[in-house]
Structure formats: C-alpha cells, structure tokens
Amino acid sequence: RETFEGHQVLRIVPKNGVQLSLLRNLEEMMEFELDVWKGATRLSSPVDVRVPPHTMQAFKSFLETNEFEYSIMIEDIKAILDAERKQMEFAARLGQPRN
Amino acid sequence: TDSFDYANYHTLSEIYSFQDMLVAENPDFVSKIVIGQSYEGRPLNVLKFSTGGSNRPAIWIDTGIHAREWITQASGLWFAKKIVTDYGKDPAITAILNNMDIFLEIATNPDGYYFTHVSNRMWRKTRKPNPGYSCPGVDPNRNWDAGFGLGGSSGYPCSETYRGPSPHSESEVRSIVEFVQSHGNIKAFISIHAYSQMLLYPYGYTTASAKDEAELYALAQKAVNSLTSMYGTRYTYGNIIDTIYQASGGTVDWTYNQGIKYSYTYELRDTGYYGFLLPPNQIIPTAQETWSSLMVLMDHAYKNPY
C-alpha cells in the first residue's frame, strides 16, 4: 500500500501568462514526479499539485525561482488518508449488523 | 437500502451489493444490466430505471470513470436511491420516468476503484498493463474516438492523461460505446467527475463551437443556478476547451458527435481544501446539490425531444 508519507499538496496561483504556460506543462516535468490534481486553467485560478517528499525541495526551488505564489493545501496526506480509512472501517462495523 | 450509509464512502463490493439490493427491493422498476467486463474481469454494471415500454428515449449518467474521485461514486449511490424514493412522489421525476428510462453506471472504472482501496488512494486510470512500460493504465477520459491523440492528452503511458494505444482500447470505454450505439435512443448523457465545480459541454478537443452551443450554454446556466441555490456552491460553466483546457478523446465530445445533444460533464465540489479527499460529511450535500441540477438537465431533455 502506498501510504503517501511526507506527500503534500501545494496550491499555486498563476499571476501572469508566463506562469500560466509553465503550469500547463507541469505534468511533462517528469523529474518532479508530480500528480496534478487540478490543472491550470486561467490566471488567478489555483492549481493543485501533489508532490512526493523526495522532490519537494527541488520543486519548491523551481516555484521560487519562477516567482510563483503558492501555499500548502494539504500538509500531510497520510494523516487524511489514515483518518479516511478509520472512518470507513468504523462505518462498516456499524453498518454490518443492519445490512 | 434504507439503512445503507449514504454519508460514507464504500468499497467496490459494497457498491455491487447495494446495486443488487436496490434491484431486489424494486424488481418492477430497477434492473441491472452488465454491459461488459473490466480488464481485470469485474462486471460493468448499469442500473436501469424504467417504468415500462421498449427502447424508450433514455438518459445516461455515469460516475467514477476516474477512480480516485470518490465523491462521484458516493453521489451515484445517493442518486440511485433518490430516483427510487422520489418516483411517484416528485412530479418532475415521475413525469420523466413515465416517458424515459434512466441508466446509471456507478462504478465506471471498477478496477481503478478497487485499486484506490487496496493499494493507491490516488489512482485515476484503468489497470490494464502497457507493454514495454512499468506503468499500467489508461486515462479513460482520453480514450474516446473524438479528436483522439490531439492536444490535451498524452502518448506516454506513465502520464496521468495517457490516451491509450487506440480509441476505445479500454473495455471500460468500449462497453459504453457499444451500449450507446446499440441502444440508439439516448437523448442525454452526463458523465460525472470531481473536483473543481464546473458544468461543461462539448467541445474539449477543438475550439469549434458545438452547433447547439447557445442552448447548451443556457441550459448549463439554469442547471448551475439551481445547484448554487441549495448551498451556495459556486460553479463555472461553458464548453470544455474554453472553461478548463484542451482535452482530446473525452467522453462527452464522443457522445455529442454521436448525436446526443444533451452531453454534459460535471466536476463536483470541493469547496474546501481537500481535493480528492473530500470528507464524507460532504457526500450528501454534494449529491443533493448535484441532483438539483441534474433534474434541470433531465427535465429539459424530457420536455425538448429531438
């Protein structure tokens, strides 16, 4: 099972045409191993990208070099996944006798 | 199905059980059609809601073609129950179902959905291996024969938007294609994705306008107004290429080219900051607001035969 330990989702907002066109090519930047959750559409519309821990520093440097504004949308994916899994297990246990 | 927990996410086997229960409870109204098999051999189940007649005009709704978009499968379960509970009570859905059939495919990419539960919650594509590459799977929303291979899809198997080796190469896609063509009387086709709060219509592969653009735009506006009026969720709407980006080989471009005028695709909500990990307490409000707009689309298709 992929646990997504150390993975984060960054939210990036393009503020000019050059940044927008860079973001449109994120998926082709294989070196960062990104998973584009929400792709680039237009200026000021946020882009969400899941970044694995081993490329985090390099990707953040790329963003800073190109003067992107970004924030952390999901700090710790593993924590959310663990909570989601627990909730499903709990709900399944509750539901079993009724079903 | 009354005690089914609609406010939580469910495994594939629970979805399959739910479908069988719904059919068993409503044998004269709901039936299950198996339109094909996934690559890994799972049934591609479609629920048919019908009050009679043969080959009536029909509405198609699918959820979950992208496996990780769990809010869509969860909404599909809620829609199925909603159709059953509202028929005979709500005049609008009753009128629609007295004249049209509804087909609902809840787990459109079952192999991918199963994989999201056991191995990788973030899986999007199908699971068929790609010869010569270690990365399996095809993006089933780039695999349709509508501008296949043009911009906005990838020829690289490890990409999330890999289009596959040829149009309809994925059985999950081909099965729908064959069903739609053999049915021949589907009047509205709605394919549901998540998340960025959009209601979109063709085209995605070309900047050319759909010939029904004006009507599709006005109807999208009406549907979105209905959706937003419920919980204030803000949606954008328009054709795919202008509203999001170029995407070739997409589902509703193909259905529109097949003559299904009311071809729409949704991106459901994440009004917060969760993306594909939308908390389960948002399932029911998401399904409710989406249903409100689906009713606008379905009612229009019913009242505007072509």
Name a few traits of the molecule:
heterodimer; A: 99 residues; alpha+beta; 4-stranded antiparallel beta sheet; 3 helices; 4 strands; 21% strand; elongated; B: 306 residues; alpha/beta; 8-stranded mixed beta sheet; 9 helices; 8 strands; 16% strand
Query: Taking all residues together, what is the mean pLDDT of chain B?
Result: 97
Q: How is the largest sheet of chain B built, in terms of strand order? A: 1-2-4-3-5-8-6-7
Report strand % of chain A.
15-25%
The SSE string of chain A, one letter per element, is EHEEHEH
Question: Your description of this structure?
Answer:
- The complex is a heterodimer of chains A (99) and B (306).
- With 99 residues, chain A is an alpha+beta fold.
- Chain A has three helices and four strands, in the order βαββαβα.
- Chain A has helices at residues 17-24, 53-65, 77-98; strands spanning 8-13, 35-38, 47-51, 69-74.
- A four-stranded antiparallel sheet of chain A has the order 2-3-1-4, covered by helices on one side.
- Chain B has 306 residues and is an alpha/beta fold.
- Chain B is built from nine helices and eight strands.
- Chain B has helices at residues 12-25, 70-86, 91-97, 110-118, 171-183, 213-231, 240-243, 251-257, 283-303, and strands at 30-37, 43-49, 58-63, 101-105, 186-194, 198-201, 236-239, 262-268.
- Chain B has an eight-stranded mixed sheet, with helices on both faces.
- In chain B, helix 6 links the parallel strand 6 (198-201) and strand 7.
- The interface between A and B is medium-sized, with 31 and 30 residues.
